[in-house]
Amino acid sequence: MTKSGPVPDESRLLSGHPMNPKNSIVYPKLNSNEWILFNTSGTSAIGPWGTSFAANLTPDETGIGSWTLAQFTRAMREGKSKGLENGRPLLPPMPTIGYKELTDNELKAMIRYLKSIQPIENIVPAPILR
Ligand code: HEM
Question: Which domain holds residue 21?
Answer without folding.
Answer: 14-129
